[in-house]
UniProtKB/TrEMBL annotation:
Keywords: Acyltransferase, Transferase. InterPro entries: Acyl_CoA_acyltransferase, GNAT_dom, GNPNAT1-like. This is Glucosamine 6-phosphate N-acetyltransferase. Pathway: Nucleotide-sugar biosynthesis; UDP-N-acetyl-alpha-D-glucosamine biosynthesis; N-acetyl-alpha-D-glucosamine 1-phosphate from alpha-D-glucosamine 6-phosphate (route I): step 1/2.
C-alpha cells in the first residue's frame, strides 16, 4: 500500500505521503460548495487531471515551484525534500494533496491538511488547512474550490471535529462559499514569527 507505478519513462515506483484510497471515499455531496459542472477528487473534470496524495517523486514534477507561487520556499535540495517527506510520512498527521496535469507531468494545485492530536473534546482531532495554491494558468477550472473541498472532506473522513484556516481578508468570501465561517469573538489570527539565523 502507498506505492504506485509512476508512469514516467523510467517506470520508477513512487511512494505516497498517505494512502490514496482515502480520496475515493470522500462524499462531495456533504460539502456546501457548488460545482458547475460537477467535479470531485475522483472525477476532477478533465481526463488529464488527477487528484492524489503528494509523492516522493513530486520533487521532479514542480511541487516546490508551485509552492513558490504562494510564498518563499528557498533553495531546497532533493535530499532536503526527501528527508522532509520521510519525516512527514513517519510522524503522521500530514496530508499534502495535489492536482497533477498528466499531459505534462506537472503539479498544478496543492493543499495541506495537518491534523493535531488533542486532549480536549474527548481526545479528538483538529484539522488545519495550509498552503493552498493553484497554478495561475489553470484559473477557471474550479481547481481552488476542488482542492480545498477535497482536503476539508478528508479531514472529516479522518475524524476531525473541526477544520481551521488562516486567510487574507480578500479570500474570506471564497472560503465562506465552501462552508467555513468566521466565529464571532474568535476570528483573530495572531502569529509570532522567529527570525532564523543564517548559517
Amino acid at each position: 500500500m502507498g506505492m504506485e507505478k509512476n508512469g514516467n519513462a523510467e517506470g520508477k515506483l513512487s511512494e505516497y505521503l498517505y494512502p490514496p484510497e482515502i480520496l475515493k471515499r470522500l462524499d462531495f455531496s456533504k460539502s456546501p460548495a457548488k460545482f458547475h459542472p460537477k467535479i470531485s477528487a475522483v472525477d476532477p473534470g478533465e481526463d488529464w487531471m488527477i487528484v492524489r496524495p503528494l509523492q516522493r517523486s513530486d520533487y521532479d514534477k514542480g511541487f516546490l515551484q508551485l509552492l513558490s507561487q504562494l510564498t518563499s520556499v528557498g533553495n531546497i535540495t532533493r535530499k532536503q525534500y526527501d528527508d522532509r517527506f520521510t519525516k512527514m510520512k513517519h510522524s503522521g498527521g500530514y496530508y499534502v494533496t495535489v492536482i497533477e496535469d498528466t499531459r505534462i507531468n506537472k503539479l498544478i494545485g496543492a493543499a495541506t491538511l495537518t491534523i493535531e492530536q488533542k486532549f480536549i473534546h474527548n481526545c479528538s482531532l483538529r484539522g488545519r488547512l495550509e498552503d493552498v495554491v493553484v497554478n495561475d494558468t489553470y484559473r477557471g477550472k474550479q481547481l481552488g474550490k476542488l482542492i480545498v473541498v477535497t482536503v476539508s472532506l478528508l479531514a472529516q473522513e479522518l475524524g476531525c471535529y473541526k477544520m481551521s484556516l488562516d486567510c487574507k481578508d480578500k479570500l474570506i468570501k471564497f472560503y465562506e462559499t465552501l462552508g467555513y465561517k468566521m466565529e464571532p469573538g474568535n476570528s483573530n489570527a495572531m502569529n509570532m514569527r522567529y527570525v532564523k539565523p543564517l548559517y
